[in-house]
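Predicting structure from sequence has reshaped protein science. With that in mind, we have picked out one protein's residues alongside their backbone shape tokens:
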Amino acid sequence: MRLSFLRKERGFYTLLESLSLEVQAAVKVFLLLIDSWQHSHPSLQTIRDIEHTCDKLVHEIMVKLHKTFITPIDREDIHKLAKRIDDLVDIPHAVTERLELFEINKINPEFKELVEVLVQAVDLVVLAITKLRENKKRTEILDCCLAINRLENQGDRVFERALSRLFHDAKDPFAVIKWKELYDSIEQAIDRCEDIADILWGVVVKYG
């Protein structure tokens, strides 16, 4: 009975995996939406539905944290991972709302390029999260973290190029303001992937 009480609750791994997979689905739908952008696109509702599912998973993780005596990794790391992963669906969800609000009719190529970088980074986040429960896969997690950092640097370069073109070509100051906010949001999402990589790196160092 005592051993059962002290058993580390490994269900957190399953919940984090489920959350990251939902986010992966959301960003892939987001890329498809960008590829064929139109107002009232059916994918808009899909992203909203996934965002609601992610909120429920995060809530479940937080409740579980309060009820669990011993966690498989530091509870603070679980909390931070859940919040940062959830950000990865909250940001694209907010951007889709902005695209409609700003009455954007055509997607800039640099914006799509940024979203493609985000999708690659999220794929690596999912890969790293699914290896978290496997003690022998720590090196592979670190490899994912390094690859995410490289993608973050790539995203920075695309972001800078996008702003340069925006400030040089745009004639409408309101268009500059709108697109600057949209670019900022996707760059922030890529930064969240790097934040997750940093957390995972710390976990590997502590438990590797």
Remarks:
- The chain has one domain: 2-207.
- Residues 2-207 form a domain with the Methane Monooxygenase Hydroxylase; Chain G, domain 1 fold (CATH 1.20.58.220).
